[in-house]
Each structure stands twice: as C-alpha cells, then as structure tokens.
Amino acid sequence: MYSVTKRIDFCYGHRLLDYDGICKHPHGHNAVAEIEVRTDRLDSRNMVCDFSDIKRLVKGWIDQELDHKMILRHDDPLVKPLSELREPIYLLDSNPTVERIAKLIFDKAVELGLDVVAVRVWETPTSWAVYGPR
Length: 134
Hints:
Layout: E1 2-14, E2 27-39, H1 51-65, E3 69-73, H2 79-84, E4 89-92, H3 98-111, E5 116-124, E6 127-131
Parallel strand pairs: 1-3, 3-4
Antiparallel strand pairs: 1-2, 2-5, 5-6
C-alpha cells in the first residue's frame, strides 16, 4: 500500500456552545490539516497522487471557505452580528470542534475526487483530531 500526505496551513476562529470550558469563548487557531491519500497501485507517473493536485483542490477549498473565517454553529448568537458586519463566517449544523472540522475537510476532499483515507487537523502543536472511514 502506498500513501502520500499533504500539509495545509490555515487560520480560523470558533467557539463551542453548550460547553463548560474556556473554548466557549471566541478564539482562534493556526491550524494544520494533513490530507492522506492511499492506493495499492501507482499511476502512470509512479505517484499515488500529485501533491499539487491535493494542494489545488483541498487547499483551494480551505482557502476559500475556512481560512481566516469564524467557524460557528448555525444557531450561535454571534452569527447575526458578524453577518451584519460582513465578517467572514462558515456555518456548521453542529459545534465546530476540531473533530468536526477534520470530517468536513475529509468529506470535501472525497467530493473533489481524491482517494482520501484520513484527514488529521492539528488545532495546536500538541492537539489534533483525525477523521477517516472505519
């Protein structure tokens, strides 16, 4: 089995509702997403996937949709004032935990046609979540 992993850096803000900890307050992260693509056969170029394809597809989507945005639950009271101020936001139907963000990126990478087996999102240099089908 062969695999390649592309690292994508991005920044985002969020907060967690119905949570009794410091993450209930708005705050930001310098995140790192690792997109792992796997196959049992190399393509005609002897590659699993060209790193530039992962970058173009997944980083392009992250840059457009998540980078430097507040990722919020759709019913967060901050949505209305931030929208009125035309601040960049991305809405989810559930709390924007790092686990949820990893699944979001995984699902988008699959939708974009990549044979992704796992997405790891580092929220801090010492804390991460992984999503993959199992």
